[in-house]
Task: inverse folding
């Protein structure tokens, strides 16, 4: 029972990792940037939602806040990130790292360093069963939304013109540039899409664990691990990787609490030794 | 193609300038560093600040062996810095009164960790390599946070202080000034080692790896082995710096293991100029001073540091010493 | 004994057959050109010999040993060195430094973190010697990336020579060069073969070079071996004329 409880907790956590990792992975693939500011954007969206809820309600905020974060992401991409595409990855890494510091600092200045709760609709807060008291509506909702939005993303990538171009750009940017696709526009759109995923993760996570300016910090590292475990270049890998490490650390929390965080790095280490390209990764991508 | 027959001087390593100019600059640097406790207070600085500059310079120079000279972008070197710091702190807190032994042990722990973990990271290249180094680094952060009883957890490790060094016939007390000189000696030894390596066949291969891995592979070299060696050496140097950092503050905390510190070390390399041997020293000077000053005048120092990152990356990618980048004499 | 023997070698990529049933022998000291239209399988042939990938069928012998499943690094030590269609050198280093790192690797000292004066002198002498051989000494201190394409190719040959090749594979050594550079490279190839006694296999499109320099010529077409012989035999071969020379003229 305790194990089940923790495994389920881990699954929720894993859903956050997965949403973060999918967005990161998207940006890593087409933009070639490890977006260190991803955690910052995530927290930003959560604070936007926090501010919006009194006016538009939870559902409105859930819709609008990621779009607002995406808009900020667009500005950032235009002003900073796009200047660095042609340079060594070091520079985009450092620039987004600097951005992460700035965002965190601004969030703290505006909303304060103290954590605040995010109000979620009452009916979602009820446990669904007396025995499995930990399965609240909200938690199921989080997992469901993570899965639905990821499926939605897959659908976008598979069936829309934008998505098909993003996928093509992932495998060969030069070729699609040669056939006349505006790769700068494509990269902007892709970056914004990735940020919106972070935003969604942020709001959902805030409903579960509350808001702090540093909330993204705690989620971004496991998301990196999720990408490595799932395999760089594979969105499905990021999703599965996120869920796996979430559940693994949840279960570990029950068995040996001190290793709750460390376990995910151990999993990564084992994966790197046994299967360096990750669960669903392709050989040689981004190297 | 008109190429006049130039006088050929073959000792030119990728980091050397004409010998005369270089020697002159080096002597100036040495004199300036040796006399810090004399002139720094006159400018309103304090000696510990200079120690910190040198410690970060040493760490960044160690990292730069991998980053600037081998072309390996590690975002996880804070781990080896922190392990050096914790190793030294724990030794002094629990096992020994010898400062030098504690430094040696701290350096060994950090360096050996890099030696063991480098081979895992080099299984992948490029951006993927960076991500793995970040993640490996964070593992130590969480260990330090969770292993409360041993490491002091999130509050950090206290309960130790640097002890006088007893030599046959005399004792060095390691107050502020003499500690600065200990740091300076370590810095000098560390940079001498790095310099020697960069001018050795091994160092030549490192630079060649940065330039063209495929060519080296087809000269019969296992490139990943050499990157791992570079990783290990740079880990030892960074660990030495971390160990000194613990002594400087008589304190260390999980922050010294966190990726934020890795980012700071990287920006120090970039600020000063990654392709220049002394670049990280210049970068450390700029970064530590800016950080010290900014954090004393505003709460929002993080924003300022963040802007330093963003702006320097966009506008000064070659760093302060980038202007001195070698051009061919044609 | 022949230096290099390929017997019934084929290489397929999925459904595509890049090389089909190739047999050829290269004798020690030979200067052999490989010609053929684009897509004939020339570079695939080089990739097989240099261990880039193994053949799908057939055997490759070098110096009396089979080398079908040997990785490139080992082949380099056995004496098979290649250059690439796209020049692979160290662009940010000087000519001298380019060749020096190759020499240090070849001397087996590349893991040494220090160097003494005696070794340094030995390295130096060898680098000088190689720069003399490829006639680039006067540009020793130029940064490779800022030199002309022709000079960069020469540097690459210098790097390749550092490993004392028994068999040197040159993939289009004169591609993209001007007349003067081409002459320099042609002279170099000839002198490496005649005075340094290095067996050379080279891919070339320029027929003047091929017929002027090569002892023997192998003609590939569409993954198969069309003909092999001396320059005169090839020039007179009606199949070659039909398939290749006719269209090139």
Result:
């Amino acid at each position: 029972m305790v194990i089940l409880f923790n495994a389920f907790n881990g699954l929720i956590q894993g859903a956050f990792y997965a949403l973060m990792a999918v967005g990161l992975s998207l940006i890593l693939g087409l933009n070639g940037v490890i977006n260190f500011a991803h955690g910052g954007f995530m927290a930003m969206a959560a604070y936007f939602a926090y501010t919006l809820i009194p006016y538009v309600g939870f559902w409105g905020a859930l819709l609008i806040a990621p779009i607002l974060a995406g808009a900020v992401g667009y500005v950032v991409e235009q002003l900073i990130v796009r200047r660095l595409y042609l340079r060594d990855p070091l520079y985009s890494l450092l620039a987004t790292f600097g951005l992460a510091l700035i965002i965190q600092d601004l969030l703290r200045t505006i909303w304060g360093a103290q954590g605040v709760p995010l109000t979620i609709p009452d009916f979602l807060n009820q446990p669904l069963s007396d025995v499995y008291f930990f399965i609240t509506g909200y938690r199921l909702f989080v997992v469901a939304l993570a899965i639905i939005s990821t499926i939605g993303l897959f659908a976008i990538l598979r069936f829309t013109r934008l998505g098909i171009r993003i996928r093509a750009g992932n495998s060969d940017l030069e070729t699609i540039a040669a056939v006349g696709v505006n790769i700068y526009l494509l990269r902007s759109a892709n970056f914004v899409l990735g940020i919106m995923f972070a935003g969604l993760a942020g709001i959902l996570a805030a409903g579960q664990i509350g808001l702090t300016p540093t909330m993204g910090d705690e989620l971004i590292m496991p998301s990196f691990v999720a990408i490595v475990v799932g395999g760089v270049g594979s969105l499905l890998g990021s999703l599965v990787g996120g869920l796996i490490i979430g559940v693994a650390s949840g279960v570990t929390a029950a068995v040996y609490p001190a290793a709750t965080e460390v376990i995910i790095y151990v999993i990564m280490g084992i994966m790197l030794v046994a299967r360096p390209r990750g669960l669903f990764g392709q050989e040689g991508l981004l190297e | 193609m008109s190429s006049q027959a130039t006088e050929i001087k073959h000792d030119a390593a990728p980091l050397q300038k004409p010998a005369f100019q270089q020697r002159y600059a080096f002597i100036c640097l040495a004199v300036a560093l040796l006399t810090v406790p004399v002139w720094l207070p006159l400018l309103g600085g304090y000696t510990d600040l200079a120690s910190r500059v040198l410690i970060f310079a040493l760490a960044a120079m160690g990292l730069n062996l991998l980053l600037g000279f081998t072309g390996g972008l590690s975002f996880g070197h804070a781990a080896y810095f922190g392990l050096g710091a914790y190793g030294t702190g724990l030794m002094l807190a629990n096992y020994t009164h010898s400062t030098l032994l504690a430094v040696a042990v701290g350096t060994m722990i950090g360096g050996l960790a890099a030696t063991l973990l480098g081979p895992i990271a080099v299984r992948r290249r490029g951006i993927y390599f960076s991500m793995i180094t970040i993640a490996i680094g964070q593992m130590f952060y969480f260990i330090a946070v969770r292993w409360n009883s041993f490491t002091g957890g999130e509050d950090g490790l206290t309960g130790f202080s640097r002890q006088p060094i007893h030599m046959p016939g005399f004792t060095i007390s390691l107050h502020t000034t003499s500690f600065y000189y200990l740091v300076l000696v370590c810095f000098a030894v560390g940079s001498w080692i790095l310099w020697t390596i960069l001018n050795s066949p091994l160092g030549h291969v490192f630079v060649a790896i940065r330039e063209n891995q495929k060519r080296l592979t087809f000269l019969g070299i296992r490139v990943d082995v050499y990157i791992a060696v570079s990783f290990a050496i740079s880990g030892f140097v960074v660990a030495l710096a971390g160990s000194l950092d613990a002594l400087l503050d008589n304190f260390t905390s999980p922050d010294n293991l966190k990726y934020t510190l890795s980012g700071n070390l990287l920006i120090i390399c970039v600020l000063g100029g990654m392709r220049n041997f002394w670049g990280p020293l210049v970068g450390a000077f700029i970064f530590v001073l800016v950080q010290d000053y900014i954090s004393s005048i505003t709460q929002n120092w993080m924003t300022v540091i963040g802007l330093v990152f963003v702006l320097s990356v966009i506008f000064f990618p070659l760093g302060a010493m980038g202007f001195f980048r070698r051009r061919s004499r044609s | 004994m022949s230096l290099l023997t390929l017997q019934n070698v084929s290489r397929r990529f999925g459904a595509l057959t890049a090389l089909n049933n190739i047999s050829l022998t290269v004798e020690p000291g030979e200067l052999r050109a490989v010609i053929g239209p684009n897509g004939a399988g020339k570079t695939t042939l080089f990739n097989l010999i240099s261990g880039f990938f193994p053949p799908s069928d057939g055997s490759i012998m070098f110096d009396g040993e089979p080398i079908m499943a040997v990785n490139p690094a080992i082949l380099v030590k056995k004496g098979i060195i290649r250059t690439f269609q796209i020049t692979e050198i160290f662009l940010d280093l000087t000519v001298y430094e380019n060749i020096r790192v190759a020499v240090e690797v070849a001397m087996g000292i590349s893991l040494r973190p220090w160097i003494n004066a005696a070794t340094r002198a030995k390295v130096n002498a060898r680098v000088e010697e190689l720069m003399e051989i490829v006639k680039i000494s006067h540009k020793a201190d130029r940064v490779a990336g800022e030199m002309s394409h022709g000079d960069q190719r020469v540097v690459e040959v210098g790097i390749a020579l550092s490993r004392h090749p028994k068999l040197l594979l040159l993939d289009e050594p004169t591609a993209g060069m001007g007349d003067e550079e081409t002459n320099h490279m042609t002279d170099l190839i000839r002198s490496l073969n005649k005075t340094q006694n290095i067996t050379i296999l080279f891919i070339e499109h320029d027929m003047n070079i091929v017929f002027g320099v090569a002892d023997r010529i192998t003609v590939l077409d569409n993954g198969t071996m069309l003909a092999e012989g001396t320059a005169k035999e090839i020039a007179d071969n009606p199949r070659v004329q039909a398939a290749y020379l006719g269209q090139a003229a």
